[in-house]
């Protein structure tokens, strides 16, 4: 927190504490259970030897202990978690947009914090990569609440800038993460090219595309003549939002783009988690976890 005044530091701590309070309330035991079923560990590890019970598989019999004690015993195993979650977060200028009380960036902080606190509950590691047209910061995955709070602090502090370069961010993540990880790619995906960047080696990592949209971006709005500005490129244009042909063209473009995006995700076996900025997210997150858990 360099170059901060004491008041700025106190304000940052207040914001972190507020996010922690709200997000930990969302990270309930029920959601944590759904999270665990959705993201499996990397294997099984030996737990203990116990007496044989009806239904146990014969291949689990520990013949040495069975011979020594004169009755059948089996080895039991537990899931070896050792998961690493990396949040690759779009910090481009378009994330500053918000038609409600908060921007996409500010709203997403609680979503990411909730996911991070669920991971912490299961003793998983969490990390953060912030990017726009360059990588702004990288925090390697580690365990523990204190580390998760550091991620929250960095998300709060960073001010979005520049345009979105998905390929650069994913190339960087693939290069720097050596082992297998669950990678949440968090973005509004408002970029001209998302097909090529998403052509990534999904066999190595488990990818989830967390797509956030502001309600105003998804539907035509009737507010007359307005100037629309692209926050990332700075380009602007005057548009009559009451003009029916414009409304139909805008809606068609949104539908076509959404379908192309979903098709790309299916092609590369990337899970899709769509969220609407400003709306409650605990229910959609839990539903997403449950769907993944059943499929796996």
> What share of the residues does DSSP label as strand, in percent?
15-25%
* String of helices and strands: HHEHEEHEEHHEEHEEHEH
Number of strands: 10
Q: How helical, in percent, are the residues?
A: 40-55%
Our measurement of the CA-to-CA distance between the termini, rounded to an integer number of angstroms, reads 42 Å
Discrete helix count:
9
Cross-sheet strand order for the largest sheet: 5-4-3-6-7-10
Computed Rg: 23 Å
What oligomeric state do the depicted chains represent?
single chain
Report on the biggest sheet. 6 strands, mixed
Based on Cα principal axes, name the global outline: elongated
- Average of per-residue pLDDT values: 84
Q: Please, could you describe this protein's structure?
A:
The chain is an alpha/beta fold. The mean pLDDT is about 85. The chain has helices at about 5-25, 30-40, 65-70, 105-120, 145-155, 165-175, 215-220, 245-265, 280-295; strands at about 45-50, 75-80, 85-90, 125-130, 135-140, 180-185, 205-215, 225-230, 235-240, 270-275. The strands form 3 sheets. It has a 6-stranded mixed beta sheet, with helices on both faces. Helices cover about 40% and strands about 25% of the residues.
